[in-house]
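step: validate -> pass
step: tokenize input -> pass
step: predict -> running
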Amino acid sequence: MKKLSAIILASMLMQAPAFAENIKVNNTNRSYIVYAPKNLGSGRPLLISCHGMNQDANYQKGMLSIESIADTAKFLTVFPEGIDKSWDISGDRDLKFMEALIDEMVDKYDIDRNRVYISGFSMGGMFTYHCMNRMADKFAAFAPISGYPMGGGTYTSSRPVPIIHTHGTADDVVGFSGVSGILSGWVKRNGCDTKASVVKNYRKAPHITRHTWSGGEDGVEVVLMEMADKGHWISNDYGVYTGDEIWRFCSRYSLVLTDPSVRITSPDNGLTYLTFGGNGTTEVSGIIVNATATDPDGTVEKVSFYLGSELLSEQTEAPYTCTINQLKKGDNVIRVVATDNEGNTGSSQRIITVTEYNATQLYTMSKQFNTVGSVPEGWVTYDGENERIGFSSGYNSGSRVFQFTGSEKSFSWGLYTRNVTGKEKVGYARFGDEKSSMALILNPGNYQILTNIVNWNKPEFSPVTVAVETIDGQQVFAETFTPTVNVGNTASNNFPGSSIRTISFDIHEKGRYVVTFYTADAPWADLVVGPTAITRKGNVSTIKDMEVESGVVETLYYNMAGLCVEPTTPGMYIRKDIFQNGTFKSRVEVRK
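step: predict -> pass
step: emit ->
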């Protein structure tokens, strides 16, 4: 009973009203609470922390519990009060309040304008995102908690912005599922690496996973603090305090830059080479690394390229580029370091993963079909109007992933694309495109693609083509067929009856390839790629004169340059069999 009484007393003390101050903004009295450590000094940072909807400044102060951190680090904290306990998350009413607060804190406490940070919980977090777009010149870093723009993000900040977003996975007010789409937009806007480094059990807290997208312009990062099983509240347990993490992150940033900034412009972070048939000797070579480097208050003296701890190259003039060879299986860390004339350094890194699959091992290309409204990692879609590169999300029309919920369905998740214009090879979903984060390296051998494909809104059914192509677009195999199942334009419809189709082809030269799923060359032709995998079955088949298949009305041969020829001399040809129903099947023949 004594323990319970102590907890209640502590809670009452935490929520005890603090002294509020007032400021007039556009002829309206606005209030706020200030926490100023003793002996604050001049030129210190400022953190503004905004409450949630139907909450107030005093409640936010109690929940954040940042006083001891501010005492140690010597920074000022302001808890502003929203009008009617809410925030203007689309207009400029509260943006002007923030500007007035900053000016007031400069006058009263001589804070450093270049080290002002903003955070907010729930609707305060939504307002924090609003400030990113409209006040990036006033705030050096941003720290939303359990809040983001519910109607979709915009990414129009005047500069790259550092972000640390904290969110519970069990949040039933502002769902955790929407966080990734918003942050992916900011990762792209900031020029960060597209693949995050992930730390589970962060600082020994079993419920925290920290995702960090590094390598952004001006050295900015985007961080997600994922709180497992936490609801719609500020998390302070297992010795990890949200306010402390916000300060640790924000305090690294200032509006005035002094250290050199280096950015790897290619390849993207998280690039994965999926290699088949290497027999344990797989190496990937010829990776060209390009970087840019600047120094805000001096000059860049040199840029150094590392593979792991091994120095590969040092360069003193732009363009900064290095070719890296012999990347081995596993994670390969590429790091670029810029050094300025004062000896200060800035760095950026990429992780390139090489994975090998041998005979009987399947790689499931559709395993990332798990987020509604996304284009998955490793995929690129094009419909004649819009190209979408995975991972990206937040789409509610056009090419995207569907989750199917009917009681009778051929599969549960699928990637939809279409052909808006009707032009040739316009509508497609492609795996392994050079713009994506996955690359297919195929050694010589016989391969199989196993795929389940249906139409989305074509009750009369529409042919699709599965093609294997080189990275520069040369087709080495294609098979065209017509699905027998149509979803019916609604993800909740039943669509049973579609089955896995097995497509076999040979690869004769080691190289990088893509697998493309084309719609028909007709306006609004469509397809949905369901469960799909690729595997290497064995060695190349030596194909001589093959018997004409039943139903073939014409057979054409093409050389490897794509010219239609007569196969009269030894060599490798692409054979195209055209069937009575207008479909065709292509394969490679070796003539001796």
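step: describe -> The first helix runs from residue 2 to 14.
step: cleanup -> pass
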